[in-house]
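Please predict the structure of the following assembly.
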Amino acid sequence: MSAAGALELASGRRGRPLATYGAWLAAAVALGLLPRLFSSGFALTTMSLMGVMIVFTLSYNMLLGQTGLLSFGHAVFFGLGGFFTVHMMNVVEGDGAPLPLFLFPLVGAAAGLVFGVIFGAVSTRRAGTAFAMITLGIAELVSSSALILRRFFGGEAGVTTDRTGLVHLFGVTFGPQIQVYYLIASWCFVSAAAMYALTRTPFGRICNAVRDNPERARFIGYNTQTVRFIAFSLAGLFAGVAGGLAAINFEIMNSAQLGAAQSGAVILMAYIGGVGGFVGPIIGAILVTYLQATLSDLTDVWQLYFGLLFIGMVMFAPEGVAGLLARQQPLLQARQLHRVVPFYLLALLPGLAAAAGLSMMIEMTNQLTGHAPDGPAMVFLYAPFNANAVLPWLIAVVLFLAGTWLFLRAARLASAAYDEALATARMRKSAL
Amino acid sequence: MVEIVFISTLNGVLYGMLLFLMASGLTVIFSMMGVLNFAHASFYMLGAFFGFAISRHVGFWPGLVIAPLLVGGIGMAVERYGLRRVHRHGHVAELLFTFGLTFVIQQLVEMAWGKLPVDYRVPPSLDFPAFTVFSTNYPTFKIFELLISVAIFAALLLAVKRTRIGLIVQAALSHPDMVGMLGHNVDGVFMLVFGVGAGLAAIAGVIAGPALVTQSNMAELLGPILFVVVVVGGLGSLSGAFAASLLIGLVQTFAVASNASLASAFGSLVSQRAQAYLGDIWNVTVAQIAPILPYLLLVLILIFRPRGLIGARDS
Amino acid sequence: MTSPSPALELAGLRKSFGKTEIIRGVDLTVRSGERHAVIGPNGAGKSTLFHLISGRYRPSAGAIRLHGEDIAGMAPQLINRRGLSRSFQVTNIFPRLTVWENVRCATLWALGYKYSFWRNVERLADARRRTEEILAEINLLDRRRTPAGVLTYAEQRALEIGLTIAGDADILLFDEPTAGMSRIETERVVSLIRKVSEKRTLLMIEHDMGVVFDLADRISVLVYGEIIASDAPECIKANAAVQQAYLGAA
């Protein structure tokens, strides 16, 4: 059964305001309590970064998920927001004006909005693929200019600031990471709420219409270019907020943060989480930030894994994690989940084996090429061996091939089980 | 002065030809399949690296033949097993697929050959000056690049206009569904076109590699310029891509050769204090901003002629 | 019922695609408040005519006057805002939005909400009321939460009509509204069209002669890009040229 069919069943739960307010309340409480659960330095740093990325990814979702605008240069607004924030922080610290730190993401917002308007006026003249290429061009323009305008962008070293140098209200210096966490968490909450509210406005709805069928949107009275322009500018605003939060968090801004890699990262986060809805980008931001933090310690080719994950998602699960979860929702409602979970687990095992085999091959190749001077000895999953020996390669290849084959078989069974369960859920629902 | 102009023109045309070698494949793939292949510059990079690897073990000339064939094969596999599957999820998914592919290819190249430039050398048989213009020696290899580009275009033009498969390609360019209904294997044609496009990009890599720098960031440096070329030319127009390739090739080459800056032009007119205030912008030379000129051109075109030099109106 | 100035006037309208001229000098007058049908053989250019009027295509020559104002070549949204709304022959809805949201989006501009991003759309009582009315008219109230993409063909055609009438336009263009429908569905659509076009101007492309003679006050016959007759239904029936070209000689 198609994703649309599952969506049809799931959509019956729309429009329950109490549930929505309850969810936001729960989120606020969770944000407040998280540092109690995870209090290590690593956890606080990672959670702070997640907060920043959630705002950034949600702002990207305004473009791609809500309005259908595929931008390859969204980091420009993130970076510019951050740079203006650090400069403003430095200026204010120098002047000694009593402006508290938690106001400064507003600087990022303003910068993001202004540049969103400027670049948006040019970019939104075209749509679709041309628009995507234009955002790429403009992003390159800005990031190349960053290396030329060394005064503002600080050259390769970037621009630093001191977040504790501003006026301290109620004794809060923002020196300790936990205080920064709460600043970021509050801004994240407010920004997310604002972006959510935007989706509930006439403009937000028309953005969806333009995404689905821009031509028809014209015939119901809307100038699609204007719609896109406004969406682009507002998305720039929120990306600027994220940049300001990043500036506060890291106390440094570097021209790489407005470059292609950062733009690619936000696309990755949004897509893996699932574009379109509201929860998807949040999931994506959290997941990718977490994976990045942990994977980069384990292997130096973690970016390759991300690339492969991304391609895999695009090919096999374009709705993202949120989409996959949404597909289970009708089963959950009709209490049919137990019919599919065993098959999912059945597919999981060979899937993991195949992933292990592939990873092993990648790491061995890396050992032989990237780490050639270190010799062939390596450790993978706690097992030591030589990367140029035949046996490990044999094992890896077998794991990968056998795992993939078994996974495909199990996936076919799981798919059939899902269809059956969904059909039952439909029958149950229409019988009500 | 005349010397600089002459050399720059030659270099500019050459650069433009290289750009067109890639932009043409990109445009045909886009016109036919509706997908803008982000990974096109990656195929260029693969061509350069494969050419380098082959030239180390066998020689430059075998590399010139084998590398494009290898990359063309990879291109066909990408179309057959990747793009075709993603096609049903829409254009955004296709674009993102090729975007992810770029990333993966770059990581693989970095893993295999490292981040530093590799020593891809001009073959000794071509490593001598072709002629001397004023006081500068103009390398033969560059003339060779020019000749190869022209030869390939001639061959392609012939293939498209005179052969049967070329006729089918032309038809599929505007009406792929119709061509399919006439019994032609449109899927096969797509695979072939994608493979040939990749092969063309690879040839550009093989011949540009020794002259320019062969490094794992080649794709990310050239990619955006390539896309600017196709947008400025008018998405989907081969003649537009040709014009834009030459334009950007010449503009960038002349810019790099120029030492002009706002300061050198107007320095005597503006006070020292104002100059200090304007700082970077005032003193930066045209050569320094050469890398961003294509993007400035893009912005200008978008403001004054959004559909590109020779583009169709957005319907 | 008819007021002095015509609602819609086409004068010397021409449209070529490359060397092919599809519309070859069309003169047509649609009076205010009338129900006007355009019929003609396949390929005559009827849909092209609608595209020209509604702004999808730009004319090669000639004038299109909406309440006296020349709208030839104007962007579709500008024409729509001046009170002309059209439906499409190939269903053109918003597939991922629910039926409710589809219709509500079509009401927003006419109600004056434009690009408002500071009001909660759920709280707009007039939008809600209007959407409910329209959904009741097109009989899709109980499908309001369904994503439009999974509706049946007939339901989508009904939604198509709903989108067209939601903006309260006073000139409605319907492009083959009953195409592919059963007898019962056709009757329902006809009575719906009759109801919504009261006190409004209707221009309709149709192939179903029963519908045409049932609804239309006047009929124009388009053949190879030219209007060969434009008259009351009985006169059209009796017109020899029309019989030859279209209805088939009796």
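The first strand of chain C starts at residue 8 and ends at 17. Strands of chain C lie at 8-17, 20-30, 35-39, 61-66, 69-70, 84-86, 171-175, 201-205, 218-223, 226-231.
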